[in-house]
Amino acid sequence: MTTAYEPGNADLMRQHHGDIIYEPSGFVRKIHRKDANIHQTIVNTYTDMWKADKKDATNREESIKNRREHAQIMTNAFYDIVTDFYEYGNPIINTQYPSRHIGWGESFHFARSYKGDTFEQSIKRHEQYLSLKLGLSRNSRTFDVGCGVGGPMREIVRLSGAHVTGINNNAYQIERCKTYSKKFGLESMTDFVKGDFTNIPRELYNRFDTAYALEATVHSPKLELVYGEVFRALKPGGLFATYEWVTTSKYDDNDADHRRIIHGIEEGNSIPKLSTYIQALDAAKKVGFEIVEYEDMAILDECHDPWYNTLKGKFSLTDFKMTRIGRWTTHKLVAVLELLGIAASGSTDVSSVLMNAADALVEGGETGIFTPMFFILLRKPKDA
Prior knowledge:
alpha/beta; Rossmann fold; 2 domains; eight-stranded mixed beta sheet; two-stranded antiparallel ribbon; Sterol_MeTrfase_C; MeTrfase_SMT
């Protein structure tokens, strides 16, 4: 495993990302790096975690153990190299605020989609649903567990007026959070903590009325580690709402094709090991939570479109790059830019990881063995 990469090193972050931390720009500028060696080191740090599985993608126990032990390094490296690709993957352009990124530009998650919805409507509704379930208001202090670049947080603040504190262990994304909050006048309503959500600062214990997570806790080595810390952060009686990435009852661990798909999802999204939905519920109960309700929001009624349609894309001006052909075109563009020295060394490897991840996610959705939106509402007992 590469050891030169130091997650959280502010100097390295600025060398790697340059001034795009503060001034998000076009795709070519995003994937250009002033120090290509640093970028290659970070890419190697991530891909080295999966080399043992290349010949045998059966999630051997020693490989899982290694990824769990190095989960913080692995996930930091992952988001240092994919955040800018995720922002480019935004299929929507905001006509009211052309300079403002939305969709995957700010919100790195999927959403239940109703027929006739735009991508932006689905994403915002998915975020607003958490706010409503938690009963947030201007008097609420809530905790965003794994806040990314803060897109969901900003939507929830605008809807509810609540004060939200986000925690994230990736220095680059924390700086982007602060930049966006300043840009949109939300500094007084948001705080950010650079830290590990499986080991939060003690000063955050018993501080929050509510907490939420959007597809973030999957990066924890084990769910009970992050759930335990959320439990400690909540005041007695506080609610925690989360969307979890889990395998469903249709997943068969004895099916080689199922294992291949799930392993592809894990490798392409920095997941030490996916839990089953039963394991997620058990982890919550183990640390002391009461289960209020749960639902797989990927299960479709006649009024819904599949969540993975976003990754399949449509042949239109806005959605073409999300199609498989569009992703292939972007991948080849990145390869040419890297060959010409415009994109940093390792950019093509990153593109490959994300292409394979998208294919695995679509297969997981189509077979029904995986969901990225297993909704769980939990309560910390009042006498805890």
